[in-house]
Structures are given as C-alpha cells and as structure tokens.
Amino acid sequence: MTSYHIDTDMGVDDGLAVALADALLSDVHSISTVFGNVAVEIATRNALIFRNLLGRSSSWTVLKGASHASDGFFINADRVHGQDGLGGATQSLGPALLESVARESVGDLEDARPLSGSPVTIIGLGPATNIPNLVAHYGPSAVEKIVLMSGVFFDRGNITPHAEFNAYCDPAALQATLDLGIPTTIVPLDVCRKVQLARATVAAYTQSYGSELTKLIVASHMHYMDFYRTAEGIDGCFPHDAIAVLAALAPERFFHVSGKVTVECGSDFRGRTGVHLTETHVNIVTGGELAWVRDILSRPPRSQRS
C-alpha cells in the first residue's frame, strides 16, 4: 500500500488540502513544512494544529523543513494568507489547544524515513525546496511518484506575470526535482483557475459538519476570499492545493500532457516554467473530470475517524 508524505507551506488552501488528504488518502504518515505562504515556523505550527484537530497526533510525523530557498531567497504571502497563515482564524482557537501545540516538538527533515519498505508518494503543496532532500532520505527507489502544485504554462502568473508563486520561490529546487527522473505530476495554475470554490459553498460547510476543524477552515477561507475578490474579481478562491491532493488520489480522472519542463532561475524571469511536449517522466495536468473535483469540494472534508 502506498504511503503519502505531504510537504506544505501550510496556508489557507494547504489546510483544506491536508484535511482532504486525511479524508481520502489511504495512509498519510508524514508532513513536512517549508517556507512560502508563511515562515516555516508558522507553517509548522499550523501543521501541528491540523494534526491535532484531525486526531492524528499519534500517527502523523511532522517535520520542519527549509526556511528559505536553495539560493537563499525568501518571500512570503502573508498579505494573502494572514500573519498566522490561516487568515487570522487561529485567534478563535481554544487556549488549551494552542498551549498543547506550543509544547509539541518536531523533528527535522533529515528524520524522514520510509515505513516498512512501502512505496511513498510525495505531494508538494509549497516551494519545492524540501523535495530533493526528501527523495534522498527516503531513497529514490522508495519514491513511487511526486505530485506538485507548481508552475504556470499558458496562463498569467500569480506572483509575476510570468511565474506561479511556488515555482518563483525556489525555481532551482523545482528544476532539481524534475531532474531526478522520478514520475512526476505537475498541477499548474492553469488548471487550478478552472475550479472556483465559492464563498457560499465554504460558508455552508459548518451547516453539515460543525467540528472545530471545519470552523477553522471556513474562517480562514473568508479572509483568503477577501483577497481574491480584490485580486481576481471573484467571490471565492481557487483551491490549488486541494486539486493536487485529488490528482494524487485519482490520476485517471485528470487529463495530462507529457513534456520536458524547464524552469528559469534568473532574476528577470525567475520561476517561469516552459514545456516541450514529448514523452518524459513528467506529466502536466491540463483538465479532466472537473465536475467531480467541484463535487468533492462542495462538501466539508471529514476525517476517516469521524
């Protein structure tokens, strides 16, 4: 049975994706954190909060990863995700939970180990900085597949006109990941923009499932969607990272093209991704059964322990 390792910069859409992974994937055993949406320390705290609320404290390992890009670059998106990475929603969490999380210790990325020889699928939801190191620690032969939310090919970028945020944060690490030769699926901004998660849909989550986790997801998305209303003119958001989880779960439900992907690392076009269509180990998601994706996201993710 495949085990899943999620690498995340733990902003608002990452939180929804992690909850969805818990509900749908067979065996999530590790989460590593990386800078990106917020500083890695905040991302780690958010991962611990979600682990606690999902009841996975005894089964999920949380590992703290890179605090900056492989070339020393650092950026965050707290204007999008809030200072706490969750739209300020952590302020409403109970003090007992926050105190418990503050007392928890986490390992470093080097502590990642495979479980009993099980194949591992790595799902990357943030900058790719950690991914080559994760592959090295698990062993390339143990990594069955890598699924990345990254890049933009035929659409406008969301951090510069040319680049998607995750690719922009650490283009060298993204290129190094692609160069590993491991089967890789890229879920780019192009396809993410085809799926809009409406404010009303998320607000209705608590009507069918009023857990503390659901309330946190809803509250964090309200702030996130305020940004999208200004930036994109929509009353909702694009659930980037949740789509990556669904692409890992059911690749047969998505359309892909295969190609040789290049990533620019220079300052002028940092993070710009290009593709030459040919048969390679890299597949780019272009579309698929998006009505199925929207149907999944129309309901709040519920833990397998519910």
Write a compact overview of the structure shown.
The protein has 13 helices and twelve strands.
Structural key phrases:
12 strands, two-stranded antiparallel sheet, 10-stranded mixed sheet, alpha/beta, Inosine-uridine Nucleoside N-ribohydrolase, Chain A, 306 residues
Overview of the structural elements:
This protein has a single domain (3-297), classed as Inosine-uridine Nucleoside N-ribohydrolase, Chain A (Alpha-Beta Complex). Helices cover 37% and strands 20% of the residues. It has helices spanning 12-24, 40-53, 78-81, 95-103, 131-138, 165-169, 171-178, 189-192, 199-203, 205-208, 212-231, 240-249, 290-297, and strands at residues 3-8, 28-33, 61-64, 107-108, 120-124, 143-149, 184-187, 197-198, 236-237, 254-263, 273-277, 282-288. The strands form two sheets. Strands 4-3-2-1-5-6-7-12-10-11 form a ten-stranded mixed β-sheet, sandwiched between helices. Strands 8-9 form a two-stranded antiparallel ribbon. Helix 2 crosses helix 4 (95-103). The longest helix is centred in the C-terminal third of the chain and has 20 residues, at 212-231. The model has no long low-confidence stretch (mean pLDDT 95).
